[in-house]
Structures are given as C-alpha cells and as structure tokens.
Amino acid sequence: xxxxxxxxxxxxxxxxxxxxxxxxxxxxxxxxxxxxxxxxxxxxxxxxxxxxxxxxxxxxxxxxxxxxxxxxxxxxxxxxxxxxxxxxxxxxxxxxxxxxxxxxxxxxxxxxxxxxxxxxxxxxxxxxxxxxxxxxxxxxxxxxxxxxxxxxxxxxxxxxxxxxxxxxxxxxxxxxxxxxxxxxxxxxxxxxxxxxxxxxxxxxxxxxxxxxxxxx
Length: 216
Prior knowledge:
single chain; mainly alpha; 3-stranded antiparallel β-sheet; 3 strands
C-alpha cells in the first residue's frame, strides 16, 4: 500500500481530475485525499483458484449479458412497497431470502449499469481490436495452428436454448404449441386453422432465427 500511495502522490502533475473531483484545486488537496484514503482500512478478498475454468467462464458470461437478478429469483412483491428475492450465500452454500424497498432494489440494480460507451470486455496484446487482424494470423502460423473460419452467427433462440434451457418459440404468452401444430378447438368452440397456424409459426420462427422482423 505504501508504494501505491507514493506513486499516486507523485502523479499530481500528470493527473486529469475528473468532474466529480473538481474540488481538488491544488497539490495539497490531492495529497490530503491520497493520505486519508491510504489510512482507511481496506478489506481485500482473494478467492481460491477455481478447479473448473469452464464454470467460471460461464458464470462471468451470464453476469455480463444477463440481468442482475432473474425473474425466477423473485419471491414476493408487495405492490408499491417491497420486493423479496432469493440468493445463494456462497459462504454457507445455502439459499437466503432478502426483502428490500423499491428504492433500495433500484439502487442495487443501477450499480450494475455501466457508463455510456464503457466496454465490458477488453482485449490486449495481439488480441486488441486495433491490431488483431494484423497479428493474429502470425500467431496461428507460429503455433502451426489452422486459421479458424468465420464463426456462424448465433441468434437469440439458440442462445436461449443453450444457456437457459428455454425454447422461446414455445412461450405460452405468444401462442399454444398444440394450437399451432394440431389446430385444436378453442374453449369457445371455434376451431384453429392448422394451415394458418403453421404458416404463422414458420413466419415467427424464421424471424427469430433469421433476424427478420414480423408485423403482428
């Protein structure tokens, strides 16, 4: 910590003060900030190395792309007051339930929203976006590896099936699967045209897997 503090103290002339720290007008203000922060007690936790790297990558992937809290974890909602949800306590390996007010849950969710233009994933070295096209083929050549072909585009339906085990094409909020494929009778006695339902299902399926919009 001492080395870090000394480095920060020496960087005043090369530091661009962000707007939220506009009150730092002089080097004395900067020293006061650094020294006070250095005197605080910091809790540093370094987890043990995971045994299964694939599980770690999947966890990080879900964290980067999914919402902070999934709908399946919501336990109870009191209209206009509180929201209860379940979570896994990694220390005890047990599921716990917590209840928060609407304002508190929003504060926690907002913490996960990145700043505008913030890159969640960054590459460096020969994988940096600026130079990967130039250096990556040379890396494959040096390692005597075959250059991989273009990666096929992955659509929402495939991702939902692979990572969530959910088929969005069978969502009951859009249609009933038996109505689409079988043309069953509705509760009011009116029949469903199998041909028309099948055509509509094919149209929606093509839109979801091919990136084309459907007018409803």
